[in-house]
Design brief:
Layout lengths: L1 H9 L4 E5 L5 H7 L8 E6 L3 H6 L4 H7 L4 H15 L3 E7 L16 E7 L4 E7 L6 H17 L3
Parallel strand pairs: 1-2, 1-3
Antiparallel strand pairs: 3-4, 4-5
């Protein structure tokens, strides 16, 4: 993550996150890096559909594709980018081995990640299905994969 933060600093770019199942783990990883305040604008943890919508995700996306899908991750990344006027927005949604009583559809242990690049008006996506361990170790696995994705984007 240090390389990504430094690259964002040197290119004068900013980043923001909207996380669901990772619960702010990505924002924490970014802000653990010295000088991250120069590039990190905002991190939102939106466990509920209500707050995804309040943060700018179109309710029709959730209604049509469910909260657990790449379409919702794309909407999250673009919404947080717009909300914060950042260069990059990251949206993360999925389930970490736990049934969601409010959203009973979708498979367990599948996470959808989207990085929105405002300059290119493009989403870069990733679906993660090979998660193992407890919740904290699964979150770390997700962040490790996002770091690899970000290195190819920023």
């Amino acid at each position: 993550m240090k390389d990504i933060v430094n690259k964002l600093i040197s290119s004068n770019k900013t980043i923001a996150t909207m996380e669901s199942c990772t619960g702010g783990f990505l924002a924490n990883a970014i802000t653990n890096i010295e000088d991250s305040s120069k590039v990190f604008k905002f991190g939102a943890v939106t466990y509920s559909n209500e707050y995804k919508i309040k943060m700018g995700v179109d309710s029709e996306v959730i209604d049509r594709y469910t909260v657990y899908g790449i379409e919702t991750a794309n909407a999250m990344s673009k919404a947080i980018c717009s909300f914060t006027d950042s260069d990059y927005g990251i949206g993360i949604t999925g389930k970490l081995n736990k049934q969601d009583d409010f959203n009973p559809y979708g498979s367990n242990n599948i996470v959808y990640v989207s990085v929105y690049d405002k300059t290119k008006d493009k989403n870069y996506t990733m679906t993660i299905e090979d998660l193992i361990g407890d919740r904290e170790s699964m979150k770390k696995q997700i962040i490790d994969k996002i770091i690899i994705l970000l290195k190819n984007i920023v």
